[in-house]
Amino acid sequence: MAKMSPKARRGLGILAVGAVLAVAVGLTLSALEDTVVYFYDPSTLADKPLDDRLIRVGGLVVEGSVSTQTTPIQFSLSDGAAEVKVVYSGILPDLFREGQGIIAEGRFDGQVFTAETVLAKHDETYMPKEIADSLKDKGLWKDQPQSDNAY
Amino acid sequence: MTEFLQMGGYAAFIWPSWGLAVLVLLGVTVSSLRHGRRIQKELEQSELKPEQKKEQS
Amino acid sequence: MFDYLANPARFQRIANVIRPLAWLIFIITLLPGLYYAFFNSPADYQQGETVRIMYIHVPSAWMALMGYVLMALMALFYLVWKHPLADIAARSMALPGAAFAFITLVTGSLWGAPMWGTWWVWDARLTSMLILLFLYIGYMVLVDSFDREDRGSKAGAVLLLVGVINIPIIKFSVDWWNTLHQGASVIRVGGPLIDASMLIPLLLMAAAAKWWFIAITLIRMRTLMGERRLQSRLASRREGGAHD
Fold this sequence. Notes:
The complex is a heterotrimer of chains A (about 150), B (about 55) and C (about 240).
Chain A: H1 6-31, H2 33-36, H3 42-45, E1 55-61, E2 73-78, E3 83-88, E4 101-108, E5 112-121, H4 129-137
Parallel strand pairs in A: 3-5
Antiparallel strand pairs in A: 1-2, 1-4, 2-3, 4-5
Chain B: H1 2-6, H2 11-47, H3 50-56
Chain C: H1 2-5, H2 8-38, H3 54-81, H4 84-115, H5 124-143, H6 149-163, H7 166-176, H8 196-243
Helix pairs in contact in C: 2-8, 3-4, 3-6, 3-8, 4-5, 4-8, 5-6, 5-7
């Protein structure tokens, strides 16, 4: 160690501080997991304790579950494993439609999720409408989200 | 043309986005060039000997 | 290569060649980029015309990240090898980098409003991007808040290296946690999920952003080197004057 050049010592010092910092930030973020996560899936929602706090749930709008004629609007969200029924009286974002990824913020009483805000989440695929239509025509459309985070 | 400007009803979001980007990038460009030119001039000035400076002024 | 470039005179000679070239490449990527972005690319099947915000939002975000990574690299060179040129480079990249971070946030907000239904949420991606803007601003304020310039440079370099932890957090936030922001479309395992007709304007605009950044950085570096030469010249003249 004593024979190291000042340059190497400085470099090693910076590396060590960086490593410690990275571990510290990693630990902090994993401890804060619940705060960093912006929304829960319908299947994890059941495990959350029921209280009066605002929570968010995200999932795909179940086909055929939407009734916009009723007040409040009703629809179901699914993550493939579980479904949750949502009621909402407010303005829906432009992207709201069946099969779309949606995040609802509101309260859950164990059966029905009463939303105060509804946000649309889109996936990371971009293509012109004609191509999307022809993919659907040919039956090549993947209804499954491209990644875990697509809804 | 109007159809193009309306951007399918999203004109209020698309044009401000681009407008702001142009404004910010142009601002950085102009201020960088101006500052550079000023420093270059001052450098040239300081290269002149004091006697030359008197003659100039 | 870094040692080779660290000689300021040699660096300036090379930079004088690259600078006009950078402007040229900027123009020849920007013009077709804008043409494709507005006139020769389709609307998205989901997001309609708002996809045109992507062509400024995404290149800005890439450059904000890349600019910061380059600055952090310069900070490392400065702290370990004490090259003043590395400090000058980092200082010169801060303003254009901050500009890109700012544009990313505002255009993202203008895109999120119609599509997501909100201007802003505190999800991991948006929050970490805001922190990046604060790091840029913090760096610019910090380096200029010391009487002795080298103290400012050193403090700034430390801040840059500490803040570099934020970069992987921004990039992978959309994979690690549930966020409102969608996952990566271009730089991802398995290839881009963007149709070629939209990828062309995106990559052209990204190239334009990159070469603009290079040109501006080189201009600002020359200015800063000139400023330092000016200062030392004035200082030596003042000292010389005392002996007269």
